[in-house]
Amino acid sequence: MNQCSIYRIWSRRLTTVFFTALTAITLAGCFGAYNTLGLHLFSMKIRVFGPGNTALVGAVVSCSSGETVTVDSSGVAKLSFSDIGPYYIAVRYQDNVIASYNVSMPSDGGKTLTANYVPNAAPTRNQGVAVEGGNYFSMMGARLYPLLFQYVFNAYGYSIDLGKYQPGQYTDWQISTNGKDEFLTRKAYLTKLSNGEEWWQVSFQTKSDSMLMEVLFSDKLQSIRRMRAKFGNESPKEVPVTEGWYTSPMQLTPESVDGAVVKKGVSVTVPAGTFTCDQLEFGLTQGFTLRLWRTADVPGKVVKYEMVGNENKDLYSAELTAYGTGAATELGSY
């Protein structure tokens, strides 16, 4: 099997996994998002541009409220909201997710967000996909990077970390969807720069493929400023970063976290060991529950989290497999 075929298989596999989980989350927001009166209390705009800052006509902006808008010659899509609360927004063009956002009403009402599309290079005549130089990573970034970071750092728009990481600390996770093990991932806080920006490392590994990314976040992880990536055994490459790729997850108030505790002193066994935890449950919307198991013994204070639907059916779950210190750049990022 040639390298291009492996790229396509890996891309389809991860796309399937992430869209399975994120589709479930997005669909969850469709229920109850519009109140019975149908009043549009809030709104916001998404500007979608292609090469040369031209309007990306035909791009589709969809929201977990159920609204879908197609970008026209003005390059602007306007979304309306009837209820307060969190929403997930995805911007797609030619089956690629080019940007995604977590917003909350009314705090984000009236804002204008920007999504920039980095087009794939022209495919080769024989193989149908460009892989030379930076072209492959531009393709992967357009399709998968927004989903990867949304998935690793938040659940339904909320931070899945209930505590801080210190520089050098890491956590490893086993991710499952619909009860089946899908892939392994690592999240590590590498270092903090003098200007407050932070380097983090995120990796994904399936049975046959792997991807390692090192990401420079702005202060308090508000946006992505720079990225380097390594696919399999290839050399590290700089990834083009545009505004609007990532929006930081919403941070829960301490009172909300404490109010979500349904059990204390629960013994939870995950691949990383057995921990005494508090079990937290959040009702995200009708029929969907986010559960987390919290302990002070690990970075981020979470050893397991899961999204369950009706009849406690697992939509996806993550279990801690390892944690520790000593994480450092592997891609020469700083």
Which spans of ≥5 residues are poorly predicted at pLDDT below 50? 1-38, 120-143
Structural class: alpha+beta
By DSSP (H or I, 4+ residues per run), the number of helices equals 4
How many DSSP E strands? 20
What is the fold-level CATH name, i.e. the topology? Answer: Immunoglobulin-like
What CATH architecture do you see? Sandwich
Strand content: 35-45%
The CATH superfamily is known as Immunoglobulins
Main pleated-sheet profile: 11 strands, antiparallel
The amount of helix comes to: 10-25%
Which assembly state applies to the chains in this document? single chain
Rg from Cα: 20 Å
What is the overall shape? globular
How many domains in all?
1
**In sequence order, what are the helices and strands, one letter per element?**
HEEEEEEEHHEEEEEEEEHEEEEE
End-to-end Cα distance, whole Å, is 35 Å
User: Could you give the order of strands across the largest sheet?
Assistant: 15-14-13-12-11-10-20-19-18-17-16
Average predicted confidence as pLDDT:
78
The first-level CATH class is given as Mainly Beta
Report what the structure shows.
- It contains four helices and 20 strands.
- By secondary structure, it is α+β, with helices and mostly antiparallel strands.
- The protein has a single domain, classed as Sandwich (Immunoglobulin-like), CATH 2.60.40.10.
- An eleven-stranded antiparallel β-sheet has the order 15-14-13-12-11-10-20-19-18-17-16.
- The relative contact order is 0.15.
